[in-house]
Design a protein that fits this description.
single chain; 172 residues; mainly alpha; two-stranded antiparallel ribbon; 5 helices; 2 strands; globular
């Protein structure tokens, strides 16, 4: 399978994110595309709605990626792993992990990305919780606005405040 962090593959994934914005039962609030997997922060009312939303996105993504790669078969071999986020601190840590995941991988190689770096293979450009705003994106927003207290207010007020763009996620 190709590298998901390529323009051709990312366009397919982005279309699936835009389609997910329309869902009423689950909202992709933030995402980042890694080499061979995707990190998501999703708001949903229950595990069943989450499963249906992830399945729908995975099918849409797999069909599109197979079409781009001229192949057939499984694209996402593993099941998804989910973990409910219950506290403002957990939500803030998850946001840092998802939005700044590229920094973690570069740091593991002994390098640093510039403080102004915004991962183009994520929803970081649309994220409004940076301590210093990112440059305004020119493309349509591929994520749904957050609605829950934890993702709109809680993580900022009680989870540690706005996120510096150069904050490196904690090691796993």
């Amino acid at each position: 399978m190709w590298q998901l962090r390529s323009r051709r593959c990312f366009r397919v994934l982005e279309r699936a994110f835009w389609a997910a914005v329309e869902r009423a039962d689950a909202r992709v609030a933030q995402f980042s595309v890694q080499w061979n997997h995707i990190h998501l922060v999703v708001e949903t009312r229950d595990a069943r709605a989450l499963a249906r939303a992830v399945q729908s996105m995975a099918i849409r993504m797999a069909k599109g990626l197979n079409r781009v790669m001229g192949r057939k078969g499984t694209v996402f071999a593993d099941r998804y792993h989910s973990r409910p986020l219950r506290t403002p601190t957990e939500v803030r840590r998850a946001l840092v992990y998802v939005l700044n995941n590229a920094r973690k991988h570069v740091a593991a190689l002994g390098h640093r990305l510039p403080p102004s770096y915004v991962d183009e293979y994520s929803s970081a450009a649309w994220f409004t919780g940076w301590s210093e705003p990112a440059p305004a994106p020119t493309q349509p927003c591929p994520i749904a606005p957050a609605r829950t207290w934890l993702l709109t207010v809680g993580w900022r007020e009680r989870g540690g405040g706005p996120i510096p763009r150069d904050e490196v996620p904690a090691a796993d």
